[in-house]
Amino acid sequence: MEILATGVQRDERPLLERAFTPRHDIRCLETFLTRDTLPLAAGYEAVSTSVDAVLDAPALEALVRGGTRLIAQRSTGYNNIDLDHAERLGLTVARVAAYSPYAVAEFAWTLATALNRRVVRGARRTRDFDRRLDGLLGRDFHGRTVGVIGTGRIGTAFAAVARGFGMRLLGWDITVNPGCEELGMEYVELDRLCREADLISLHVPLMPSTHHLVGERRLAEMKEDVILVNTSRGALIDSSALTAALREGRLGGVGLDVYEEEAGVFFYDKSLEVMTDDVLAGLMAFDDVLVTSHQASYTVDAVEQIAAATVRNVDDYLAGRITECTLVPKSP
Fold first, then answer.
1. What is the rounded CA–CA span in Å between residue 328 and residue 314?
2. Is 294 a catalytic residue?
3. Which family does the UniProt entry place this protein in (predicted)?
4. Is the pLDDT of residue 330 over 80?
């Protein structure tokens, strides 16, 4: 079978091609799958998409008309896919249920540490031969409190690093993870976590119950010098409320690898275009806000695991198997 893979980064391409060879043929395109690029998928029974693909009802209908029967998304998140409509159309949809949790957890710590020690500001000054330390004062993480919102595999890996720093661990989730308790984590109500934590990191999926989980009220409850990091999904945080809190001089630093309106912006070169998203532009104007473009999972280890899982999803589709990666099973 020949598979069309869209939204493939240049570094990702050889890893994806190596994983599929010799079992299947794969055509890799850097182009992301949108309404304008859907004709590229015509004739491909299996299409592998990135998390930035726009797979709403009209897009799914266009794919089906072109002969697509399998969507194998190369990510854990799938809020960009209309699963109900996919099922009505008889499409099979699969995702990557899990990959290296360390990639995302370590990147979350990269953001947190860079913010705490003012690394970006310091590096910028050094490049201009300004060696002053004014405004670069950080804090020891040791002895302080970290709040981990979402204690699955990634949250657990993040908490393990926090324990290595010698931090007090607070956690919140709908279920208690014994592995986190073994690390010394205390599970508390979310409001208490927001009040007591010096560093807060988000590791929950996006669903209706977690949309804007961190909004105006919870931002107001946080310490004025808290560091807030989000490497999960952008809409977990109300970006407008976050901007307002920063304008009031609250929050010690914000690290965002995701943004709620990132579709069509992240992964693209927009350097020659006018920034039309006033909220994103406003966030990036703050010295204590560090924004990256959804790169937390972008390690060789994670990408290789994602590629291998995508191959398995294609094989499972052909064999009619349902696995933990199956979001919409193959029609009888």
1. 13
2. yes
3. Belongs to the D-isomer specific 2-hydroxyacid dehydrogenase family.
4. yes
Checking if the pLDDT of 271 tops 90, the result is no
Q: Which residue of the set 74, 118, 203, 233 is catalytic?
A: 233
- One-letter amino acid at 49 equals T
Active-site residue, 233 included: yes
Rounded Cα distance between 123 and 104, Å, is 24
Architecture of the domain delimited by 101-291: 3-Layer(aba) Sandwich (3.40)
* pTM, to two decimals: 0.90
Q: Return the closest-CA partner of residue 227 out of 134, 102, 119.
A: 119
The answer to whether domain 2-99+299-328 and domain 101-291 are alike in fold is: yes
Task: Pick the catalytic residue from 294, 304, 312, 321.
Answer: 294
Our answer to whether residue 273 is catalytic in this structure is no
pLDDT (mean) for 40-59 = 94
CATH superfamily of the domain spanning 2-99+299-328 = NAD(P)-binding Rossmann-like Domain (3.40.50.720)
**Residue 34 CB neighbours (<10 A):** 16
Whether omega before 22 lies within 30 degrees of 0, making that bond cis, reads yes
